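Interim report to the steering committee. The following record documents the input for LPS export ABC transporter permease LptG (365 residues).
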Amino acid sequence: MLLDFFPSRTLTIYLAKMFVVRIFAWLAVLVLVLMMLDLLGKTGDILAVEGNGQSELWLYVSLRVPQLIARFLPYSVLLATIIMLAGLNQNSEVIAMKAAGLSAHQILAPLLMMGLLVAALSFAFNERVVIRATATLKAWENVEYAAIPEDRAARANVYFNDGNDVLMGGTLSGSGVDTVLEDVAYYERDDAGMITRQVTADRATYANPGWQMTDAAVFTVATAETRQQDSVVVAPGVELSQIELRRVDPEAEPLAELSDSIAALQAAGRRTDELEAKWWHKISGPLSAVLMPLLGAVAGFGLARSGNLFIRAVIGMALGFAYFVVDNAALAMSSFGGYPPLLAAWAPFFLFLLVGETVLVRTEE
């Protein structure tokens, strides 16, 4: 019996069903509360735009809810684990299962199995829904909740270096030779870094090479004169490859597309450690749903008296939240080269996997 991971079909279904119900119940509570708090801060900004109303508020909710689900699903698994096992312990159901010959790992087996299923669903949900909602919401936020641009990949407040010179754009949209910069400013600088000429225009298109600014205002610093020109070509060193590389947003790109973006950046000689860590974290992140039952399991065992149950629940909560802290810290360290990408994404997972197993074996097995 000790070698049988699921010794009882009835018990497996009972625990799995109880676990899943609590996961999604806690997820619904967390998302509902956090969405209401988020709306309190964003409603004024959305309704401040002329023409926006209730439909735009619902649009914001539809774009924000997938992000909240993706972020707080692991927390829901942790809370569901602690509440469920604490209840089973308090009602002596854990004692009954152990008296029947089940080990702690066998009791947790249905929870780990459902955690793996939740992780798979979370990964698919992130790849199919969350990245699209994130891209749309960012494009909407870039225009300060005005009409959402048709090009959801549009970027705001971009700048490019052409030697000493700088090309800046309020909005970058389109792709390839159809790329368009709007609210454009070009600063021509000397070797000392001082601006010698400033060119501004509402729009600039790719001129191969350079960028053609139409109806441009050219200000010459030496003479303090401004003159209008129908067309000016600037920044011949800013190529389309630079433009495309600036579009990389790991939160708004699926795994395959992010792989291509990383390869393009590497081919251009750019540093990609942060993006590689985010690539790996797209896999390790959802797997935290498998880790949470192990970290929260300490709440389900031991004596349910004299405050021991509460202390164990607090320990399980602390272990779970410590994982999220370490996980975020590792990603932050990777962003400036402190950790290799693979280590930053996977080290917290395996570290707390060992911690959870050690606590479980030392106390229960």
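The radius of gyration is 27 Å. The committee is asked to note this result when reviewing the revised timeline.
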